[in-house]
Amino acid sequence: MLFTVPITRPGKRNPHLPQDAPAQQRCSAPVTLKSIIDDRPIGRVHGLVLMLCGFVMFLDGFDTQAISFAAPVLAKEWGLPPEALGPVLSAAIFGLMVGYLALSPLAARFGHRRVIIVTTAVFGALTLLCTLAAGPVELIALRFLTGMGLGAAIPSVVALTSEFAPRRRRSSFVMFIYCWLALGFVAAGVVSGYVIPQFGWRGMFAVGGVLPLLLTVVLIRFLPESPRYLLARSAESPRLLSILRRLDPSLGADARFVADADDAAPQQTAVSLVVELLRRRWIASTLLLWVAFIANLAAFYSIQSWLPSIVGSLGREQSVIIGATILTTIGGIVAATVIGPAMDRISPFLTLGVVYLLGAVFVALLGVALGGSTWMLLVAAFLSGTCVTGGQMSIVALAALIYPPRLRSTGVGWALGIGRVGGIVGPILVGLAIGAGVEPSVVFMVIAAVLVAAGASVLMLGRRSAAERA
């Protein structure tokens, strides 16, 4: 039995039906999820989803960055040479890749809410177990598994946020929660300054483990499930009606819901979802998106990994090294307040394409500023961050816009996973170049060229999207 949409109060029409429709038609016409989500104003349920998903991203960023501050201390405690820290630092990155590629499609079967709750609990518990690690082998294994949990959580967080977001605000919503990931990076640096001197490196993992476990309790109580996931299981789900009435109180108890065109396809397995990304309709868009992700993450991780060492090798003070590095993250957070609304109001493809091309100019300027005054270096670092870090937030929002809801978690997860290839290879190539005596300014010029490739891919993706709509 399906639900129907009544007029809930005398004299108040249902906003999803024509005002002059006959009474019988108004009581029986179906309602699509798209009409409810896109047509309603921003309300409390949107704030709740943004807050909870933002907290998950914050702790994700905190956990990911904590190892960078704990590594030097644990290396001294265990007597590890500097080269032995490489596997410790990269274990979570490889875990992230596996989580993005292998686990993100599971949301289609189990729902975004369940995936977010389980993975938050898992990466919290595994991070807490890192406090018991007795050697590098144990820590590497735990960090790899932790990375898998982090990698599975992010695509579902992005997908759930975008599903509740009206299309006119979707980019801004995704950019907002990604700002919390960047804030988690910054918070890890601030907290490490207080925790590590008092409690050692294990204290960082204790903080990074306990907080996600506490958040899990809150998520179980308050995080709503994806309406599209519930509708795919049953149009008569009381949970579905409860969630949608929070978005639109005018819906009656006998409302009848139907799937949007993009959601009406049969349920697919995790493997078939991945295969569809590479079939005729989606393969060109998917490959262009992957190129942009690879290029952006190569630039992002190359700058984040090597800027402190390069600036330090030039004899700069420690405060300047820290300031330049932090400003690349702060620049991205500030830029998100502009890029997100511009993507919503102008064009997501044109906006992001311009961001990457400007980023190429700013990164080249950063290479020149290395030999200039301190203020010039700091300004160039900030401007580079607005486009490189801001671009990384933006490309995730773009991926959420490209794919329909049933493909969104898998599409975002695989783009992030494939993009990690750039995040791994980029810093390695920069290290080889620096070791071979290549001037840092030349290295940054090459990174700038990589951003040009990212911009070209996004603009081509925009042309393809416009041709499909025509």
UniProtKB/TrEMBL annotation:
Residues passing through the membrane, by range: 48-72, 84-103, 115-134, 140-161, 173-197, 203-223, 287-307, 319-342, 349-369, 375-402, 414-436, 442-462
Pfam families xrefs: MFS_1 (PF07690)
Source organism per UniProt: Conyzicola nivalis
Keywords noted in UniProt: Membrane, Transmembrane, Transmembrane helix
UniProt membrane topology term: Multi-pass membrane protein
Major localization listed first in the record, in broad terms: membrane
Location of the Major facilitator superfamily (MFS) profile domain: 49-466
Name assigned to this protein: AAHS family 4-hydroxybenzoate transporter-like MFS transporter
InterPro entries the UniProt entry points to: MFS (IPR011701), MFS_dom (IPR020846), MFS_trans_sf (IPR036259), Sugar_transporter_CS (IPR005829)
